[in-house]
Amino acid sequence: MARDLDTNFKNEITSTVVRPAMMVQFKFESGDLNMWTGYGDLLWNDITFTGAGTFLGVSPIEESQDLRATTVTFTLSGITSSIISSALNSNYQGRDVTMWFAVVNDSGALIGTPYELFSGRMDIISFSDDAEVADFAIKCESNAIDIRKAKERRYTPEDQKIDYPDDKGLEFIPKIQDIDVVWG
Questions:
Q1: Could you give the 3-state DSSP secondary structure of residue 93?
Q2: What is the pLDDT of residue 147?
Q3: What is the DSSP string of 99-124?
Q4: Is residue 172 pLDDT above 90, yes or no?
Q5: Are 55 and 79 in contact (CB under 8 A)?
């Protein structure tokens, strides 16, 4: 698959020293949670990502040539109870999540434009809490999950008007569907 990477990004990932970073945006109903794998704040595209350091984990990301949905699990360790409470008390299922791969320089500034690695929706949130640390896992499904969903469309005038408001090609369907026609 071809990658659309800008020149600065390409140059940096082919250099002898690479400082990779992952940036994740969870779009909770109560507000976005933006985190990255470094320290401090990182500003990109008018979004401030909060540094999670080594406390942000990502399961392996699969890429395949066949059309199938993949899952990714994001793990956050040692986070505050207010974030856990906010996430669990909001409607999170089906909400968007996006992850980008980025490279930073030695002062932590972005180089080039980050590359989108994963885009999908949040599915299941689980957490474990012991006396010392809370772990928070968010299992996400890729947008390809929509391929398995049945399409709820009908051959009715109302359904046709969703896509083509002025089309009258199906307006007689309700009248003729119960007509008995005698041939010959």
A1: coil
A2: 63
A3: EEEEEE-TTS-EEEEEEEEEEEEEEE
A4: no
A5: yes
Assign 36 to helix, strand or coil: strand
pLDDT at 2 over 60: no
**Helix count and strand count (H, E) for the chain:** 4, 9
31 sits in which H/E element? strand 31-36
- Inter-residue contact 154 to 88 (CB < 8 Å): no
Which pairing describes strands 96-104 and 110-129: parallel, antiparallel, or unpaired? antiparallel
Would you state the torsion angle of the CA atoms of residues 145, 150, 153, 154, taken in this order, to the nearest 10 degrees?
A: 170
The token duo for 2 is 């071809």
The 10s digit of each residue's pLDDT in 42-101 is: 999 999 998 887 777 788 877 766 666 788 898 888 766 677 677 778 888 889 999 999
Backbone angles phi, psi at 68, to 5 degrees: -150, 155
Q: Which helix (H) or strand (E) holds 160?
A: helix 157-163
Closest CA to 124 of 132, 136, 133, 112: 136
Amino acid at 183: W
